[in-house]
Amino acid sequence: MAYYYVNERTQEVTGPVELPVIPGMGVVLPGNAIELPEVLPLAESGHVWVWREGAALQLVDLRNRPVYRKENGNPFYWSELGPLPDHLTVKPRPSAYYVWGTDDWVLDVAAERAGKVAEADVERDNRLREVVIRVAPLQYAYELGEASNDQLTALQAWKRYTVKLAQIELQTDYPLTIDWPVAPAKSLSRLSHS
Fold first, then answer.
1. Mind listing the pLDDT tens digit for each residue in 17-28?
2. Domain identity same for 46 and 22
3. Which residue range forms the structural domain that includes residue 56?
4. I want to staple 184 with a disulfide (CB 3.0 to 4.6 A). Which of 26, 49, 95, 157 is the partner?
5. Same domain, 115 and 187
6. Which InterPro entries match (predicted)?
7. Closest CA to 58 of 69, 66, 70, 50
């Protein structure tokens, strides 16, 4: 005979355990224990033994690990024994541009393109903000007729940089791959403050 404890909440079986033999009574089975005719084999990897409807059976154990909602890829920790419901998967969503297909995540090319365009717009706008900060003093010096040759050179470099930023959409692999133009050297930037 083999004795096992059964978790009241999950019905998970642990053991085998040795129960004390009480003189004159023999082995007294606690309320949270079962007696089986033989020792259970080791559970398969990722599975545990449970006691259900008077029989020991193996269930997949995905507790305390992230699982993902198929509708949006959001993770959370699963706490139940057994297979996942149909709306969940153990496969993480590769990125926000994937949607659940029949049995795996599938790239939504249109969503990826739209997302990458939005990311590129934000990055370009951030770079253009720096241009405004750098160009304004140079432009004012030029308009007042007080710009040095170095300041005029810096102003032209920033204007060329601005034109290149405005043309990133013309690149072959835009928006998936962008060859960002390099901002004028810091030495030119310092001239704008001279």
1. 998 888 888 888
2. yes
3. 2-60
4. 157
5. yes
6. Phage_T4_Gp38_tail_assem
7. 50
